[in-house]
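quick one before i forget lol
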Amino acid sequence: MMHNVFDLSGRTSLVTGGSRGLGLAMAEAFAEAGSDVVIASRDRTACEAAADTIAARTGRRVVGLSAHVGHWDELSDLVDAVYERFGRVDVLVNNAGMSPLYDTLGSVTEALFDKVVDVNLKGPFRLSALVGERMLADGRGGSIVNISSAASLRPRSHTLPYAMAKAGLNAMTVGLAHALGPKVRVNAIIAGTFLTDVSKAWDMDAFEHRAQTFALQRGGRPDEIVGAALFLAGDASSYATGSMLTVDGGQP
């Protein structure tokens, strides 16, 4: 009988930005697949509430820990806390991200630019380095999944710092695959437009018009990131590393 390549039993997964949106959907799916899960974000209350809900439904050990991904020094404490509780990390999902609005390119401040790079690129690099080297040291290896964006491939003027940071995340994915291989695999999901809590602030009429140019003619549901995440997290993708998996509904 074939081994269930999507089974994550006995593993521990760390998901940043895991208290809402795509991160929450992935955290839930990992727990349902048998993994213990750590949810990390700036909002401790939201993390703990999400963790309690998932734990009650799945019976897995799920904890919420507070950490700002954009703050370099906080990440070593986060990793230490995860290893103290679980003794291992088998799957790291760098999902936390941000893309603040701005009026014109000239109005982009240094503070905004640095914040976008810190959360979308610098933090994932630091966390991947810390967790990846421990994955190597314990001999079990593991999987790192970076949540990138279609903006990294098709940048637009209104999201340029974000697109640049995500393009850097793509380059980091390939570089880390070589740096941490063969035991640790590193891949990215190129995510398109998903309808999460953030989308509640959008002009939905304008979005629906734009979505008609997508092959699927709609935005994605958060649960529609799950299949790709489970594939890259576990044994189903055992020969995939340094790859970019596009999940964007066919955005042009």
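fyi Helices lie at 21-32, 44-58, 72-86, 110-137, 160-180, 204-211, 226-233.
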